[in-house]
Every structure is written in C-alpha cells, then in structure tokens.
Design goal:
Number of strands: 0
Distance between the termini: 44 Å
Strand content: under 5%
CATH architecture of one domain: Alpha Horseshoe
Helix content: 55-70%
Shape: elongated
Radius of gyration: 21 Å
CATH class of one domain: Mainly Alpha
Order of helices and strands: HHHHHHHHHHHHHH
Oligomer: single chain
Largest sheet: none
CATH superfamily of one domain: Ankyrin repeat-containing domain
Amino acid sequence: MRLQMPAGLSRFLSALAVCALAALIGGEKAAAQTPPTPAEYAAYEGLFDAAAKGLASRIDDLVVAGADPDERDENGRTPLIVAAFRQEKAAVKALLDAGANANALDNDSFDALSIAASSGDLAVVKLLVGAKANARAITGPLGNTALIAACQKGNVAVVETLLAARAPVNHVNNLGATALVTALTSGDGGERTQKIVDALIRAEADLNLPDRAGTKPLALARAKGFTEVAALLETAGAQP
C-alpha cells in the first residue's frame, strides 16, 4: 500500500527545503570575498584608479602630493586591497613602499594577504609577507586564514610561503576545517595535494584533528581514494 503525504505537509517540506537552500547560498555569498565591480573600477579616481591599473609611478606621485595610501572606498577596501584583487604586483609594492597598512581589512574582514592567497598570487603573497603582513590573521565571515585559502586553491608555493611566515597550521575555521582537512576536501589527491600535505606534515600539523563530522584526515584520504596521501599520513603517524 502506497502512503500519500498530506498536501499541506508536502508544501511545508518543499518550502523548508527552498529556505534551507537559500540560506546555504546566502551564507556562501556572505562568506565570499567581494572584489570591486566593473562600475566601481570605472568610477575609481586617484590612488584607487592607479592601484587598479598597476600604475606604480602614479601612486608615487599621488602619495608625494598628499594622498592617503590607506583611504577607503564604500566597501572599506584600501588601494592595497584593490591592487591585490587585480594582482597588480607593481602597485602593491608601490603602496607598501608608501607605508600602506598591509593588514587593513575591508568591510567583509578580508585583508590583502588572504585575497592574494585565494587567487594563488605568489608574487603578491611574497611582497606582503616581506612587508610584515600578518600570516596568522583570522579573516572573513568563515574565520579562515590565508593558509586555509591557499590549501583550498591548491597552490603549493603559496602554502610553503605562508608556512615559512608562521601561519597557524592547526587553526580550525567556522566550518570545522583545518588547513589539512581543506587540502584533502578541495584537492584531487594528485601531486599538488601530496606536496601540500607533505608541507603541512613538515610544519607539524596535528594529523588527527577531525572535520566537523568527526572524520580524521587519514579516514578522509582513504574515503576519497587518495592512496599516496594516505601513505604520507600513515607514515607520519596519523590515526584512522
């Protein structure tokens, strides 16, 4: 005998599912970095325009004329943050040389280092780290670090640079994920994933910190069929 769900209950559950999906999508959007829109880029003047276009000499001239290297746009971005979004290395260097705050946060609580790490921009990451950007900073609504962002991106060189800058290897973000868990859930188990996991092991990551569901890294690697990664973790003493 086939039981039919009452129409009212069916509509309620459907509405609940839609609300849950909307909340999830909204949460993802809220957690995302917010680069300037094309309209914002077009409206930029002064240091913001020079930063977006990578005009280092123009930045120098404007600062000498009295422009504030830490001025803000409507989303709280500084020229340095705009240059990081645009991956404009020359502009980043000029702004840092002019005394721009390497650790300024925009209205979404992201800094230039987390933005550069998310885009895999090694050159800008190195410039920022060299200017004492805080690799230990917790940024964004999800409470991430630049290291977690780099692990999600799968950029080995950026991960190694941030680890050398003493990024917090065992930080757990608001989703219950460490850098190691992120590397496993975002990676494909190939060479890049293996190199990142090896770098985290060498940086003395806690190999037994689980994800939010309680699954440890070794179990994650095995579940995804990452044979080589699982072997690395086992050799380093990870528990299933």
